Amino acid sequence: MAPYRKKPVQIEAHQWNQNGDHPEDGPGDREGRLVRYFRRSEPEYEGTKTHALCGRTWHDHGWIDTLEGGNDGAQVVCPGDWIVTGVQGEHYPVKPDIFAATYEPAAPIPAAAEAETTARVFAALHGSAEEGVTRVISLYEQWVKAGPPPLGTPISRWWDKRLVELHHAILPAVREQRNRPTHPDGTPYSYAEITAEGWEFCDGCRTWSTATAAHPHQCPETHISGPITGGA
């Protein structure tokens, strides 16, 4: 038989000893929403009878309905059991010894660190959106400056080229994003800086260059690609 190991999954668990212990239940003198009072009419479940597994009377127990519902499918909860919330939101009891052997405390993410991470993500998204707007505006200005297509140019081909340029302006090529030139402190150039300084991307050696006609970029694989119109 091939060996398997349980995937590491972070779960939520609360130890139950009496009604009201679980956060989803009400005060101890009220019926729990999750762990309910144990009610069975059969003689073997009378309040004075004890449960063979824990030695406590049935009056001290609770139960959790299964996902399918119904009393016959309810899971008995003994005092001391851990109520585990599964990955699909299901709840089930786990005996203390099994819980101790299976689970260990997970370090919670500090609120400050979580807030800082969230702020960083939103800042990155905001910066990316601003750069996207800058690229589209720059592309529009280039189109206005270039004017209408030359006489004899197929309109469909001209429009296809414009659409490709617009696509690159909105969704920059991954290769150009990854290899974007950087400042001495390591921060990448913005699109506006790349455009202003005349940087272009070489598909052969996958580097950026400020080569000019007088001092062309020397690459054995290919030549400098045409003016970058939104791919940065």
Explain what the structure shows.
The protein is an alpha+beta fold and 232 residues long. Strand 5 and strand 6 (91-94) form a beta hairpin. The two termini are 53 Å apart. Helices cover 31% and strands 11% of the residues. The strands form three sheets. Strands 1-5-6 form a three-stranded antiparallel sheet. Strands 2-3-4 form a three-stranded antiparallel sheet, with no helix packed on it. A two-stranded antiparallel ribbon has the order 7-8. Mean pLDDT is 75; it is low at 222-232.
Tell me the major beta sheet. Answer: 3 strands, antiparallel
Radius of gyration from the alpha-carbon trace, in angstroms: 33 Å
Provide the helix percentage.
Answer: 25-40%
Number of helices: 5
List low-confidence stretches. Answer: 222-232
Average residue pLDDT:
75
Order of helices and strands: EEEEEEHHHHHEE
Q: What global shape is seen? A: elongated
Q: Distance N terminus to C terminus?
A: 53 Å
Please state roughly what percent of the residues sit in beta strands, choosing from under 5%, 5-15%, 15-25%, 25-35%, 35-45% or over 45%: 5-15%
SSE-based structural type: alpha+beta
Extended strand count:
8
Counting copies of identical and different chains, the oligomeric state is single chain
Main sheet strand line-up: 1-5-6
Helix and strand arrangement:
Blueprint: E1 12-15, E2 36-37, E3 62-64, E4 75-77, E5 82-85, E6 91-94, H1 96-102, H2 111-146, H3 155-170, H4 174-178, H5 191-197, E7 200-202, E8 207-209
Antiparallel strand pairs: 1-5, 2-3, 3-4, 5-6, 7-8
